[in-house]
C-alpha cells in the first residue's frame, strides 16, 4: 500500500466504526504516518481501564479486516497472528505486546466525558498533546506501532503474535490472567517504555494498600464559619516514573494545612476529596471545614503563612501550585469529631509518601516508594488508597505493612491486595545483545540499559512463560498519567526506525 493511501484507508475504515471529536488535522500528517494514523484511530475509541469492551472490539475488527488470525482469551486480551515475511521464516517468532487501556485524568476546568468522547489531540511544536486530558500515548503509541506492523506490506519480520492486554493501569489483570500455552513466540518486545534512549530489562512490582474506617459524625458547633480549601495546579504524573522528582502530593499538602487546625482554630473537617487513581500522583484536593468564628481573622492570617511556606518549598518543582480558601455561605450540618480527626491527620502525616529507598544495585534507580493516591472523607466514612512499589518483593511488603500500621493505629481496617511481581533483570538476554548494537548503529551512541520504577507486564507474563526472552523500549512520553502527558514527534520517528530494524534482525531459531 502506498504511504499516501495509508491515511485514507485507515480513516475511511475507522470513521464508520467510531465517533470522531475535535482532532487537529496535523495529527494525520505526522511522520511516520503508519504510526500516527493508527494512534489517531485508536484515540477516538474510549478505553478506560476495566471498561475495554469498545477498544477490544475495535482491535479485533482491525485484525479481521486485515485477514489475520484473531482471537480473544477469557479476560478479553486479544492476540493477532501474522506469518513471517518471505525469507524470515527461519527466525525466532516474536510477541509484540502493549496494553489497550489508558489512564483517565483531566483538569478540573475541562468538560470531558471519557466514557463517550475520543481524546482531543493537537500538535505543539515537537509534542502531541491533548486538550485538558491525558493523551493516551501510554500505551497507545506502542499499540499503534504494533497495528502499523500488522498492516505493513513491505517490512521484513519473523512470525508475529501481537498481544494486546487489558487493565494494565489498574491491576494488570490482563497479564495476570493470560493462560500458559497461548503464546508461541520465543522473544517478547514490550513497547511500553517512555524514554527513547533506554532499553528496559527490569521493573518494579506493586501492591495496593487501602485503609477504611467509619466514625460517628457530630453536629457542627454554634458560632462556626465554613471554608472550602482547594489545593490545585500541581503537575501530577506517573506514581512510579515521576516519584523521584519531588512533585507535590495534593493529599499530603492538604493534610499539612489541616494538621493543627483544631487546636489553633477549632477547625473540624466536614469532607475531603483528593486524588483519583492509585497510579497517578494526586494533583488536586478539596476540603470543606468549619472553624470557630472568633478565630476567623487569625485563621486566614495563619493559613496564608503556611501556604507561603509550602509554595516556597515547592517553587522549583511546582511553580503553578495554588491553595485557595473560600468562605462558604452554607455551613455543613455535620463534622468529624475532634478525636477521630486527631488520629486521622496524624496517621496521614505518618504515612510514607514518595521515595522510600533507592536501589543499592542500580545507580539512580528508586527501589521502593509509595503514593498516597486518593483520600475520601465525609458522611461518617473514610477511605485512603495507596500504591506501593518496589523492585524487591520483601521491601514492597515491608513498606505496605508500615502503611498498614500507620492506619490501623487510628482504627482503620486495612486491606493489602492486588500484588504483582517485578521483573528481574537479565543482563545476558539474547535479544538485548541484538538491540544494543542496533541502537548504536542507528543513533551513534549506546543506549541506557536500565530497570525502571514502573510496573511493566513483562514480570507477570514471565510467570507463565519463563523461557521467553523479554525486553522493553518505546518513544519518549512525558507527564504520563496527568493532563500534561505529551509525546515527542521526533522520538516517535526514532522509535519506529528502531523497531523496524529490530524486526529485520531477529536471531534465527
Automatic annotation (TrEMBL):
Keyword Protease: yes
Gene Ontology molecular function: metal ion binding; metallodipeptidase activity
Cofactor(s) needed for function: Co(2+); Zn(2+)
SUPFAM superfamilies: Zn-dependent exopeptidases
GO biological process: proteolysis
Keywords: Cobalt, Hydrolase, Metal-binding, Metalloprotease, Protease, Zinc
UniProt xrefs under InterPro entries: Peptidase_M20, Peptidase_M20_dimer, Peptidase_M20C
Catalytic activity, reaction form: Hydrolysis of dipeptides, preferentially hydrophobic dipeptides including prolyl amino acids
Gene Ontology annotations for the cellular component aspect, listed alphabetically: cytosol
Domain Peptidase M20 dimerisation: from-to ranges: 230-316
E.C. number(s) listed in UniProt: 3.4.13.18
Pfam hit, one: M20_dimer
Residue intervals passing through the bilayer: none
Keyword Heme attributed: no
Family: Belongs to the peptidase M20C family.
Name of the protein in question: Cytosol non-specific dipeptidase
Organism phylogeny: Bacteria, Pseudomonadati, Bacteroidota, Flavobacteriia, Flavobacteriales
Gene name linked to the record: pepD
Amino acid at each position: 500500500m502506498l504511504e499516501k493511501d495509508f491515511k485514507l484507508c485507515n480513516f475511511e475504515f475507522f470513521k464508520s466504526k467510531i465517533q470522531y471529536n475535535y482532532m487537529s488535522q496535523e495529527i494525520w500528517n505526522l511522520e511516520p504516518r503508519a504510526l500516527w494514523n493508527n494512534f489517531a484511530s485508536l484515540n477516538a475509541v474510549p478505553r478506560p481501564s476495566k471498561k475495554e469492551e469498545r477498544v477490544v472490539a475495535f482491535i479485533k475488527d482491525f485484525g479481521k479486516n486485515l485477514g489475520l488470525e484473531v482471537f480473544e482469551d477469557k479476560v478479553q486480551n486479544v492476540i493477532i497472528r501474522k506469518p513471517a515475511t518471505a525469507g524470515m521464516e527461519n527466525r525466532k517468532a516474536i510477541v509484540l505486546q502493549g496494553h489497550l487501556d489508558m489512564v483517565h485524568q483531566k483538569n478540573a476546568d475541562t468538560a470531558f466525558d471519557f466514557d463517550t468522547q475520543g481524546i482531543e489531540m493537537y500538535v505543539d511544536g515537537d509534542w502531541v498533546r491533548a486538550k485538558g486530558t491525558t493523551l493516551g500515548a501510554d500505551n497507545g503509541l506502542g499499540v499503534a506501532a504494533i497495528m502499523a506492523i500488522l498492516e505493513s506490506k513491505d517490512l521484513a519480520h519473523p512470525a508475529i503474535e501481537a498481544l494486546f492486554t487489558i487493565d494494565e493501569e489498574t491491576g494488570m489483570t490482563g497479564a495476570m490472567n493470560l493462560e500458559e500455552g497461548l503464546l508461541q513466540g520465543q522473544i517478547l518486545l514490550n513497547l511500553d517504555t517512555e524514554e527513547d534512549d533506554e532499553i528496559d530489562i527490569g521493573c518494579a512490582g506493586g501492591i495496593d494498600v487501602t485503609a477504611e474506617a467509619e466514625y460517628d459524625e457530630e453536629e457542627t458547633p454554634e458560632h462556626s464559619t465554613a471554608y472550602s480549601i482547594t489545593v490545585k495546579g500541581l503537575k501530577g504524573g506517573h506514581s512510579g516514573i515521576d516519584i523521584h522528582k519531588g512533585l507535590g502530593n495534593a493529599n499530603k499538602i492538604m493534610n499539612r494545612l489541616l494538621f493543627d487546625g483544631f487546636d489553633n482554630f477549632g477547625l473540624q473537617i466536614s469532607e475531603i476529596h483528593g486524588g483519583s487513581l492509585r497510579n497517578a500522583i494526586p494533583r488536586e484536593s478539596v476540603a470543606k471545614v468549619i472553624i470557630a468564628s472568633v478565630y476567623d481573622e487569625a485563621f486566614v492570617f495563619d493559613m496564608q503563612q503556611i501556604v507561603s511556606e509550602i509554595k516556597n518549598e515547592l517553587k522549583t518543582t511546582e511553580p503553578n501550585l495554588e491553595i485557595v480558601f473560600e468562605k462558604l455561605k452554607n455551613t455543613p450540618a455535620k463534622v468529624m469529631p475532634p478525636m477521630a480527626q486527631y488520629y486521622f491527620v496524624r496517621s496521614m502525616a505518618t504515612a510514607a509518601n514518595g521515595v522510600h529507598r533507592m536501589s543499592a544495585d542500580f545507580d539512580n534507580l528508586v527501589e521502593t516508594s509509595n503514593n498516597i493516591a486518593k483520600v475520601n472523607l465525609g458522611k461518617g466514612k473514610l477511605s485512603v488508597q495507596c500504591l506501593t512499589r518496589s523492585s524487591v518483593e520483601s521491601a514492597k511488603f515491608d513498606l505496605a505493612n508500615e502503611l498498614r500500621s500507620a492506619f490501623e493505629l487510628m482504627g482503620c481496617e486495612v486491606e493489602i491486595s492486588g500484588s504483582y511481581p517485578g521483573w528481574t533483570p537479565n543482563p545476558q538476554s539474547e535479544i538485548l545483545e541484538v538491540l544494543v548494537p542496533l541502537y548504536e548503529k542507528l543513533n551513534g551512541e549506546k543506549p541506557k540499559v536500565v530497570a525502571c520504577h514502573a510496573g511493566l507486564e513483562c514480570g507477570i507474563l514471565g510467570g507463565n512463560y519463563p523461557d521467553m526472552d523479554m525486553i522493553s523500549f518505546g518513544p519518549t512520553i512525558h507527564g504520563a498519567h496527568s493532563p500534561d502527558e505529551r509525546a515527542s514527534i521526533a522520538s516517535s520517528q526514532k522509535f519506529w526506525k528502531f523497531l523496524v530494524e529490530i524486526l529485520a534482525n531477529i536471531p534465527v531459531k
